[in-house]
Amino acid sequence: VSTLSTVRPPVAAPAPPTGPARPVAEPESAAAQRTPRRRRIMIGVLLAIVSVAFVYPFLWLISASLKPRAQTFDNRLIPNDLAPNNYVEVLETTKTLLWLGNSVLIGLVAALAVAISSAVVAFGFAYFRFRGRNLLFGLVLGSMMLPVAVTMVPTYLIWNELGLASTQVPLWAQNLFGSAFYIFLIRQFFLGVPRELFEAARVDGASYATMFWRIAMPICRPALIVTFVFELRASWTDLIKPLIYLREPNLYTLPRGLKAVLDQFGQGGESKWEIVLTASAIATIPMIIAFFLAQRYIVEGIATTGRKG
Amino acid sequence: MTTVGATRRRAGRRAEKGEGRSALLFLSPWIIGFLVFTAGPMVASFVLSLTRYDAINPPSYVGAENYRRLLEDPRVTKALWNTFFYTALHVPLAMAVALGLAMLLVRLGRSAGFFRTVIYLPMMTPPVAVGILFLLLLNGQVGLINRVLALVGVQGPEWTTDPVWIKPGMVLMSLWTVGSTAIIYLAALKDVPRELYEAADLDGATAWQRFRTVTLPMISGALFFTLIVNTIAALQMFAEAYTMFFGGNDIQQTYANDAALFYVVYLFQQAFNYLNMGYASAMAWLLFLVIVVITIIQVRVSRRFVYYEGEE
Fold this sequence. Notes:
The complex is a heterodimer of chains A (309) and B (312). Chain A is mainly alpha-helical. Chain A is built from 13 helices and no strands. The longest helix of chain A is centred in the C-terminal third of the chain and has 33 residues, at 273-305. By secondary structure, chain B is mainly α. Chain B has a two-stranded antiparallel ribbon. At the A-B interface, helix 1, helix 2, helix 4, helix 5 and helix 6 of A face helix 1, helix 2, helix 4, helix 5 and helix 6 of B.
C-alpha cells in the first residue's frame, strides 16, 4: 500500500508563478550554514557510504540479470560471463513487453484522468462560495482516512455487476471522479491565486468553463504535474487491483505479470531465477528514468505533504 | 493583492446567486465518485458483513455470525499479531533511519541533491520488484546480506524461511524505502530558523541539548504526520508480503507464509480466493476499527509533544 495514497494534505502550496522570473536558488538552510566546510566534507563521505546501501540492490539486480544461470547468485558486481540473452529469453517466453505496454497505457490514462478531474473539483472548492462548502471539503479530507480494504469487496461487486470485473477498466475508471489528496493539493494551489485574475475574465463575459480551461488550468500546471507524476507512480507500482481484476494474462500490468513470472520461474516453479530477475529489471528501469526526468516535481510534492496543517 | 482565500473570508456569507449551481457542476465528479465508490460501498460492505455471500449465489443473512467467527478464527489472531509486530518494529525504525538521513542531508545544504535522489530511488520501484529483490538478497544460503554479515563473522539467519526471522527480514527490507519520510523530514529541518540555534548556542547548549530542545520540537509536526501515515500504511501491508510468500502454487503453504500472513493478505485470500465476501467484509470493518483506534491513540498522545508554530 502506497504511503502517498493516505498522506495528509499540504498546507503550504507551491507558490503560483506571478511573473516570468522564477526564484533563484533557495537560500541555504540554517543547519547547512552552521556546518563548517570540513564537517560537510566528512558528512558527504558518510552519506556516500550510506548511499551504497540504497543503490547496491539496483546494481545487483541489473548485474544479476546479465549473468548466465549458474552465476546468478555469485554476488559479483561485474559479471564473469555476460548473458544478455536473458533479455531475449524474457521477451520470448513471457509477455513482459505486452505488460509494459499495458502498464504505460493504464498509467497514462489513470494519471491524466485524475489530474483533470481533481483540478475541476478543486476549482469548485476554491473559487465558488456556497453554503456547506467547508463541511463538504471536510468530507473530502475524511475520505482519505478510509482504508482501501473496507471498500475493496463492494467495489469489486459493482464492477462485477457492470460486467467489467475482468477488464482493465476498474484500474483507471475511478480516477475520472477526482481523488481526495490531489483535490486538496490543487485547491491549495488555487487559494494562492489572485481572485482578480478570474474575475477579470468574468467581466469579459467568459463562462465558468472557459475560465477554468483558459485560466485555472494553465495556472495550476505545477500542481497538475505533481498530481500526474504521483498517480503515474501509484498506478505503475500497484499490485492489489490488478490481482483482483485481471485474470487474462494478456491484460496484466507489469507488477501483476512480474508476480506471475515469479510464480512460474521462481520459487516452487522452474527455478530460472535469471528470467525473474531480468523481468524485474525491465519493470524497474522505466520508472527510474521517469524519476530522473521529473524528480524536481516529485521532491517538491513530497516535501509539501509533510508541512504542518 | 487579494487571493481567493482572502476574498472568501471577507465575502463571508454573501454568496452570489447562481454560484451554487455552477459550484455543484464543478463538484459533481467528486460527489458522484464519493457516492458510488466510497459511501455506497461502505454501506454495502457493512450489510455484506452480516451475510454469507460467495458472489455467485444471493447473499443469506447471518446476523453477527461473521463477527463472532472473526474472534474465534486463529488465523485472524495470527494475522493481527503479525501485522502489529511488523508495524511496531517498522514504524519507529523507519522514522529513526529517515531522520538520521535527513539530518545528514540538511547539513550538506544545496549539495545534498544527489544523495536525496539516491535515497528516494527505491520508492519508484514496484513493491513486487522490491519483494523479489529482497527474497534473493535475504536468502539464507546465497543472499548478499548474509554474505556481508559473514564478512564480519556473523552467521546470518534464514530470513526467508525461518518463521522467527521472516518479519525482522521484512522490516529490514522496509528500511530500503524510507525515501518519502526522509524528504519530509528534510523539508521540516530546512524550515528551522537559525535564530533558535543561535539562542541555544548562547545558552551553551550541547549538541544533544540542541537536538532535544530545538530540532525535535520544531519538526514535531512532520514527525507526527509521518507517524500516522506510516502506521496506517504498515497496518495495510500487502504487496511485498503477498509477492514473497503467497500466490502461485498451493504447495507453498508452509510455515513461512504463516509467519508472513498479514491482515490484508488474509482478507484478500478470504474475499478473492475463497470467495467468502461476507466474512471478508467483516474483516475489513475490524481493520477499520483497529486503524481508527490506533490513530486516535496516536493523536491523543502526540498532542502533548507536537509544537505548531503560531499556536498560543
